[in-house]
Amino acid sequence: MRALIVLLALCSALCSALSAMAAERCTARVATDLVELGEVRLAYQSIGRASDPALLLVMGLGGQLIHWPDEVVERLCQQGFRVIRFDNRDVGLSSWRAEAPSSNLAYEVLRYRLGLGATAPYSLRDMARDSLGLMDALGVQQVHVLGASMGGMIAQHMADLAPERVQSLTLIMTSSGAQGLPAPDERLLRLLARREAASREQALAQQADLLAALGSPAVTDDRELLMRQARQAYERAFNPEGVQRQLLAILAEPSRVELLNRLRVPTLVVHGTADPLLPVMHGVHVAAHIKGSELKLIPGLAHRFQEAFKEPLLAAVLPHLQAQRQDERWVRL
User: What positions does the domain AB hydrolase-1 occupy (predicted)?
Assistant: First the structure.
């Protein structure tokens, strides 16, 4: 009995030590570095040990790396991943194109709805090459990729461009881009297109309105919290023209159904049942066209990482990532 007590005490001490070590190495409060990739400069953060399997987080339309919640990033790192988050081109601290968008956004939206395609200064495939270039610069040969919304579209292209490098895909609140899928809520489209603001205060109010509209009807948002989130993003970087260019890249994208049909990467598709921007059938459609993929629907989840859905999202994502760990050194903390 005494030996058992000693053993339990040692196990407890070891677990505590491992937890402390993981917490120390997995802090999201790390420096933001820059890497030059030809004409594009990307700002990124790397959290965790360089020797751990890499997990790249690819953010959606207009989102900055800070929009990946720190506590989620740290949880992923504590499971034994090197978590890399970055600003896509045209947002945050990454490089911006100098010129304003030459296309009329309302006109391009109309062309998109008519199935005529839009014109854009760059494509989602170009943005996928940015992501792979970042991996090259960091010396990462193979990577797990988790993309949200537009980031999920970019992740699809990454897996198509370099299937030997992408070990797994996790696609959250994203789409195949196929014609005939349910359209976004009209109010949301108007808010996305409303990018001109006469003052800082108006810009913050517009962003808070957009965040509220992207949220779940099951959750009552605190307006001050939304304003604080809008203020944080504004003060780090404010580039509405860049968001328009990213939106044009989405609108110019043809259906990715053929691309999805040829993917053979282990894939998890996660979608919310209350998504107003990409209604739930978008996620169902993505999963239906990736052979062997798994689909998880989260009741009430909309198109934002809201606190109420943090644990359901982690509960959906972590088992998939665990299953794809090739070295089987899964750390349970």
Answer: 53-303
Q: Which residues pair with 162 in a beta bridge?
A: none
In a domain, residue 301? The reply is yes
Q: Count CA atoms closer than 13 A to 226's CA, side-chain side.
A: 19
| pLDDT value at 113 more than 70 | no
Q: Is residue 263 part of a domain?
A: yes
Record the pTM: 0.89
**Ramachandran angles phi, psi of 110, nearest 5°:** -60, -45
Whole-angstrom distance, CA of residue 142 vs CA of residue 163: 10
Q: Is there a domain that residue 53 lies in?
A: yes
Q: Give dist(CA 21, CA 32) in Å, integer.
A: 22
Query: Count of domains in the chain?
Result: 1
> Using an 8 Å Cβ cutoff, are 259 and 157 in contact?
yes
Model confidence at 172, pLDDT cuts 50, 70, 90, reads very high
3-state SS of 263-301 is CCCCEEEEEECCCCCCCCHHHHHHHHCCCCCEEEEECCC
- Reduced DSSP (H G I as helix, E B as strand, rest coil) percent helix, strand, coil of the chain, to 5: 45, 15, 40
Dihedral angle over CA of 67, 249, 122, 262, nearest 10: 90
Is 18 a member of any domain?
no
For the stretch 187-214, pLDDT in tens is: 888 888 776 788 999 999 999 999 999 9
**Cβ atoms within 10 Å of 319's Cβ, excluding its own:** 13
State how beta strands 294-298 and 267-272 pair: parallel
